[in-house]
Write a structure and sequence with these properties.
Distance between the termini of chain B: 35 Å
Order of helices and strands of chain B: EEEHEEEHHHEHEHEEHH
Strand content of chain A: under 5%
Radius of gyration of chain A: 24 Å
Helix content of chain A: over 70%
CATH class of the largest domain in chain A: Mainly Alpha
Radius of gyration of chain B: 19 Å
Strand order of the largest sheet of chain B: 5-4-1-2-10-9-3-8-7-6
Structural class of chain A: mainly alpha
Chains: A mainly alpha (268), B alpha/beta (265), C mainly alpha (247)
Structural class of chain B: alpha/beta
Number of helices of chain B: 8
Shape of chain A: globular
Oligomer: heterotrimer
Helix content of chain B: 25-40%
Strand content of chain B: 15-25%
């Protein structure tokens, strides 16, 4: 014990010092990044006046947005659309991904359809959704879901392929029933893939919703941005876009990050 | 009771496996009886894994018959054999604790649920890992994980246990202690074991009988009964003698070079 | 499963698209029957304007992608060489990754007033972070695994790049390039529509849509998809196969 007390202090102190060191270098990197972006923005606002709004006016506009009811109304609408499409695309994409990852026939069947689906540009989806079901919530929902699901399928499928087949063999040798093989052997291996796919699906959904709303909806953040642009109010475009991007980024990190921690406990 | 009078557990007759026109297993005939510890020894690439796939019930042979106890395998009416399998790597589910890993195998076995708890405790204490019952596999050392894997194989009331080079990925000190315990564990549980290994010394130390295979496509070169009583000592000179004897015998059929023989001896 | 069976299933999926299309046409007002579209296809393909518009879009994609690849390379190189600059650049990459392409297109239109530079820059801006991230991982891997080896064998710099570094990083380059390429086609359409372009696929598609020229909407989409799939499977994957023929 005495030698322990003699030996142990330097280790934590060294570790601590190093992590503080890393911490300060990270903070200064963030500061450099932020300041350089502001400088570029400022220079841009001078060179391309009035097309790039000035920094102070954008911040004033952001403050105005954050306290306006109309903004939060649009935000809630858009949020609802993003979440609905995100959920539908994640579930549909994951189900198809697992199916074609496990079944060669299904994979051969879906492969060309996936390639086609991935090659279609996003505005085309929204336009065809409108052609099919008219302008309404449903068109946006369909367009977003169909545009995002193939990516989820691809991620999940490749992870099903990359699963540990040694464990499949173990499950077979010990006669684990089919349900147990899926629930206890395959799915836990896919949890990281599901989480990656969800992250991707969420990020894609909120980026595409801007396109979908601008082309096909009268309201929501995307429509608000596009309207401001049509009236050449670049300040509003920038302010709304920045708030929206930061809010989505926070949501992604906060919620999905927490889910990740909960599901991957066994890893360390 | 001598081995001859005990019931047959695993019997292969005229067993052959080929992939298309390429033979992997030439012809195998052997009979393993209850409580026997049989090592299978062959040069690399002789078709051992094809043979293991057949006797574990994963893949039907191209030719011949396999009997487990009284039942013939790979007939339309036969059920897959109930066996324990210890793989080269542990193959535990890392997202389940030790106990949960054992329970998932028990759930698929015929062991009644009320016996699970007692059995798990008994086997874990035989393997000296009772304190890790609720640990995640990734927190255990390689040797401890392999012990859990052995516990899983013993637990499910197996007709026999296949061990596919289970000690080969462990460091020598860990492998030694597990090897030393293995025969005792198997005797206590009256397990029938088929133990595949590359190490002649390990085979001599552990087994009652060694099936020495030829180069691929595998056939039985010799059914060798180890002429040593138990308990044995891994560093004993007599083990070295038997080992040297086997090396001499397999030299020609395996095509060993003089250098390799020296390295083995 | 044999390759023939595989092709059979794939063919079945594509064949089933035709009745699906017919079904969609008969149940909606604006989706055209496939026969009408097929009948209009030859004159559409014979029209040089079709090809000049596709050509313009293609040129924008190629220019933007080239810029994006170069920028991604530079960013990845800096990120693996300097820890500090890497973190700074990381913020730029994240910012670009998080910008919806519609917003990038709007800003580019405002700044560049619909000049060709604007379109190329939007494509470059949206694709570069994907190249940067993919290549960074490749370079980091190569550094870890290969530096020692080339030091041991005393290879010259050129030989190092040619024989050690390039084969190792090539798979990452292709994976990143495939992603960026697929994305580039999607982005250019968004940019052309939001950037109020007069020419190019997106402009024509949007024009046909706003004037309710339904057959033309379908024709543009068909031709566009064939070209994207040809670029991906006919060019990029073939190049990949050629580079990795030693495998």
């Amino acid at each position: 014990m005495p030698e322990m007390t003699l030996k142990s202090p330097p280790l934590p102190r060294g570790l601590l010092a190093r992590s503080v060191d890393l911490g300060t270098s990270r903070i200064s990197a963030a500061a450099v990044a932020l300041i350089s972006i502001l400088i570029i923005w400022h220079a841009g606002s001078i060179v391309f006046r009035p097309w790039i709004p000035t920094i102070p006016s954008t911040f004033v506009e952001m403050g105005y947005d954050l306290t306006s009811r109309a903004f939060w109304g649009d935000f809630a609408l858009t949020m609802g659309r993003v979440l609905a499409a995100f959920a539908a695309a994640s579930i549909a994409g994951a189900v198809i991904g697992v199916l074609i990852g496990l079944n060669e026939k299904a994979e051969a069947f879906f492969q060309p359809l996936l390639a086609l689906a991935l090659a279609v540009p996003d505005p085309v989806y929204i336009i065809f959704a409108i052609l099919a079901v008219g302008t309404g919530e449903l068109a946006g929902f369909i367009a977003l879901t169909v545009a995002v699901a193939p990516f989820v399928t691809n991620i999940v499928r490749s992870n099903v392929h990359a699963r540990d087949t040694d464990l499949d063999e173990m499950a077979q040798v010990y006669h684990l029933p089919r349900g147990v093989r899926l629930a206890a052997v395959l799915f836990p291996q896919l949890v990281p893939a599901f989480l990656t796919a969800m992250r991707f699906s969420f990020a894609l959904s909120w980026k595409l919703v801007v396109v979908v709303e601008a082309l096909g909806q009268p309201d929501g953040i995307g429509a608000a941005i596009f309207n401001s642009f049509r009236l050449l109010r670049m300040r509003e475009v920038a302010a709304t876009a920045i708030i929206f991007i930061i809010a989505m980024q926070l949501l992604e990190r906060g919620v999905l990050g927490r889910v990740e921690k909960k599901f991957l406990r066994w890893r360390d | 009771m001598t081995q001859e009078t005990r019931p047959s557990i695993l019997k292969c007759e005229d067993l052959g496996v080929s992939y298309g026109a390429v033979p992997a297993v030439g012809r195998l005939d052997f009979d393993i009886r209850k409580g026997e510890f049989v090592a299978i020894l062959g040069p690399s690439g002789c078709g051992k894994s094809s043979m293991l796939n057949v006797i574990s019930g994963l893949r039907a042979p191209t030719r011949g018959r396999v009997h487990v106890k009284d039942q013939e395998l790979f007939t339309p009416a036969s059920k897959p054999p109930r066996l324990g399998y210890v793989f080269q790597s542990h193959r535990l589910l890392p997202w389940r604790t030790v106990r949960q890993n054992l329970e998932i195998a028990l759930a698929a076995s015929e062991v009644p649920r009320r016996d699970w708890e007692a059995r798990i405790d008994e086997i874990l204490s035989i393997l000296h890992i009772a304190q890790f019952k609720d640990a995640w596999p990734m927190r255990l050392s390689g040797g401890q994980r392999q012990r859990v894997s052995i516990a899983r194989a013993l637990l499910v009331d197996p007709a026999y246990i296949l061990m596919d080079e289970p000690l080969s990925t462990l460091d020598e000190v860990t492998a030694r202690s597990l090897r030393q315990e293995l025969t005792g564990i198997c005797q206590r549980t009256d397990a029938t074991v088929v133990f595949v290994t590359h190490s002649i010394r390990e085979a001599v130390y552990l087994a009652d009988r060694i099936l020495i295979l030829t180069r691929g496509p595998a056939e039985i070169f010799e059914d060798y009964t180890v002429p040593l009583e138990r308990p044995r000592d891994y560093d004993d000179a007599r083990i070295s003698e038997v080992e040297a004897d086997i090396v001499r015998r397999v030299q020609a059929p395996w095509g060993l070079s003089v250098e390799k023989e020296k390295a083995v001896a | 499963m044999t390759p023939l069976q595989k092709q059979g299933w794939a063919g079945l999926a594509l064949l089933l698209l035709i009745p699906a299309w017919v079904l969609a046409a008969s149940n909606t007002t604006f989706i055209e029957h496939p026969m009408i579209v097929v009948r209009e296809l030859p004159p559409f393909l014979a029209n040089p304007e079709t090809w000049s518009n596709i050509g313009i879009t293609l040129a924008r994609v190629a220019a933007g992608l080239a810029l994006g690849v170069v920028a991604g390379f530079v960013a990845a190189f800096v990120m693996t060489r300097s820890r500090f600059l890497g973190e700074v650049l990381g913020y730029y990459v994240t910012a670009a990754l998080r910008t919806p392409s519609a917003i990038a297109a709007i800003l580019a239109l405002a700044i560049f007033k619909g000049s060709e530079t604007g379109y190329a820059l939007v494509v470059a801006f949206i694709t570069f972070p994907y190249m940067a991230v993919g290549l960074r991982d490749g370079l980091a891997n190569a550094d870890r695994d290969l530096d020692e080896m080339s030091q041991v064998y005393h290879l010259g710099l050129l030989a190092q790049i040619r024989h050690v570094w390039a084969p190792y990083v090539a798979p990452f380059i292709f994976a990143a390039l495939r992603n960026a390429h697929a994305l580039a086609w999607k982005v250019i359409v968004v940019a052309e529509i939001f950037g109020a372009a007069k020419t190019g696929f997106g402009a024509k598609f949007e024009h046909a849509w706003s004037y309710m020229l339904m057959t033309e909407v379908h024709l543009w989409l068909l031709v566009f998809m064939v070209i994207v799939l040809f670029a991906e499977y006919g060019l990029i994957r073939q190049a990949e196969k050629f580079v990795f023929r030693w495998r």
